[in-house]
Amino acid sequence: MPPVSGGTTGGKKVLGRKRFILTDSLGLIWALWVTSADQQDRDGGRWLLSQVRNLLPRLREVIADSGFSKKFVDWVPRVCGWAVTTTATAAKGFKVHPRRWVVERTFAWLVSYRRLVKDYECHTQTSEAMIRVAMIHLMLRRLPPLPWFSDAL
Fold first, then answer.
1. Nearest one of 50, 56, 55 to 20, comparing CA atoms
2. Contacts of 68 (CB under 8 A, 6+ apart)
3. pLDDT tens digit string along 81-135?
């Protein structure tokens, strides 16, 4: 398979990839899709949610960034049956959006890994695999130590 081009975002002209993630309230990733940067947010979000809509029956609400368009906001309740909350752009100054920080924190965890700081990978599948490995590492570090293991040392 030939390498996927990085693409550019529309107005910003930034080369690279977009990472679409679906997290729970703890910031752990449930679904992931990495694509070129020229992918629209609404299209990437629709693709990601369509892949998991039958796998997450207890999901009730999707919180999306304000970059997701009205088409996405209308599509989610119609197709998936979930409520959608979008974060509005803040006025002047810094303002924390309720519950939006969970996804931003997850992205901050990911960029602490050297391979995820920049877009080093040629294939989007490799980038997805590196994100999965980083999340596995984060979850394993959170496990409490096993009592039988510490006694054996």
1. 50
2. 41, 42, 45, 86
3. 999 888 765 556 666 666 778 888 899 999 999 888 887 888 889 999 999 999 9
